[in-house]
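Supplementary Note 3. Input sequence used for the single-chain structure prediction.
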Amino acid sequence: MATVGILGGGQLGLMLAESLDRLGQGVVVLEKDPDSPCAQRRSNVLRAGADDEAALKDFFSRVDVATFDSENTPAAPLRPWAQQLAPSLRVLELTQDRAKEKTFLRDGGFRTVRFEVVPVGADVKAAARKFGLPCIAKSVLGGYDGKGQHRLLTPAGIEALPPEAPGGWVLEEVLELESEVSCLVARDAKSAVSFPIFENLHAHHILDLTVIPARIDPVLQDEARQVADGIARALGLVGLLTVEFFIGTGRDGERRLYVNELAPRTHNSGHVTRQACTVSQFDALARILAGIPVVQPEVHRGAWCMGQLLGEVWLAQGRTGGALDLTAWRDFPDVVDVYVYGKREARATRKMGHFVVHADTPERALERAVLFRDRLRGRAL
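The predicted structure, written as discrete structure tokens, is reproduced below.
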């Protein structure tokens, strides 16, 4: 039996720990937030941050292998224990830096939107004017769920852009966007498997709904799987990699599949796999960390939709956190799971839980997911 360490005790860490429990593996979590899902539900949690040298030394002395639940986990403090990390420290460093990530993809022959790196100290406004409008300016470090991003549509937007951002800026062309999809690849030292392509719908830059099977051309689905596998191999990945894609038309007028971002971890879009697939994303990563060969996930019959539950649902019910009134669930037998993370404080855009719908078609699954969540919002106590 291996003991697996998880750097970060959010909902992704919690669900991974549950998969490791089912395999009979020991689990140690490093997380300083007493409000985190792991701190609420698990006993073996070391209360410290991932930049605490003494806590890291203690943590790594207890585990055989460790992973992380966010690519924003500080990389530099982990260097003394790099041999125990999966995915590797190199993968973590690459994927938490937009400039490095984009350059790696471009140099590896993986298609991205046209972009330009603006280093710290350079004139980002002059660079944006030269790059051309419309474009998106993204901070190199620390951005997620739309944070650190500025959509520049007019010269006035350029002038309003902050002169500095963490790590500098990346400017990206704006696509005429058709859809967004993601592909998860699980890879151990000997083999790799990929999950079905997920179709993702966003609201205010935050993942809102995920549906499988994805309603996109099978040829593009095959291309996405091949690209995701190629990226995982180019990284020398051992672990799980989520590749986010855009399908859209660029300035050249061509409709294509573009790599958007990489996440070397379980992913919100993969929550649906806990019910929809024979092997969930968490089970796949747990097997790799435990040294158990990966197996190819298969999709159960029908269509599936995962819906995010943000704090605004709690606030609509007049609740500040904790439990949710799920009385409406009795009218939705096609909602096969509701998973509430247990966070004590609800904020409008905070991820507080998710649910999964099973239906005959993707359209029906999406329709029922939207209706179920609307019903939850409408029931205030």
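The mean pLDDT is 95. The chain is about 30% helix and 30% strand.
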